[in-house]
Amino acid sequence: MRMLEQRKLVVEFGRKLLACGLTTGSGGNLSLVDRRRGLLAITPSGEDYLEITPGRVVLVDLDGDQVDGPGRPSSELGFHLALYQERPEVNAVVHTHSPYATTLACLGWELPPAHYLVGFAGPKVPLAPYHTYGTPELARAVAEAMQGYNAALLANHGLVAVGDTLSRAFAVAEEIEFAARVYYQAKAVGEPRILSEGQMREVLAKFATYGRQ
């Protein structure tokens, strides 16, 4: 089976999306690219994560043509491809419908650095404007919003996170969901204190080597 290890990782992290409360049912999607082969492994459209096996993970080339897998690739294949094409350092994309990040997205809010863990995404988490899911317009909006960022909120939709590995992209999604929850809860009782640009520059400098052994 081609790209068996990558397909296994897509299955593993798809199940983690459910276990960690970052989505429900078949919501969201994730992918992992092998740039040497010019192929990416992506979750199939509309299938429950608990029922996906490595053989059901879809393989697609970087032009968007399906090369293996019995079902259709995720309906959000477009923004996965756009991110891989525009961000050569990115090898994995995770899209969630996590509750607090999605709440902010439905309010039309960016996520400012009320907590330093926003630094997993950058100095803030920007907001991409609303477009119907699965459309070229959404793919372009996501790619534009994520220039220089490792995560973006999608208005009235959810969150997208990227990384050089699937583990890293998942960690970004998980930490931004935590930061979104803290920000929402703080807004419910007062006005959060936002970290300054200088404070976030220091955080981002430290994050450049965080978790790198």
UniProtKB/TrEMBL annotation:
A Gene Ontology molecular function term of the record: metal ion binding
SMART domains: Aldolase_II (SM01007)
Domain Class II aldolase/adducin N-terminal: 8-184
Signal peptide from the UniProt entry: none
GO cellular component entries: cytosol
One Pfam short name: Aldolase_II
Keyword field: Lyase, Metal-binding
InterPro entries reported for this sequence: Aldolase_class_II_sugar_metab, Aldolase_II/adducin_N, Aldolase_II/adducin_N_sf
GO BP annotation list: pentose catabolic process
The name this protein goes by in its record: Fuculose phosphate aldolase
Protein species of origin: Desulfoferula mesophila
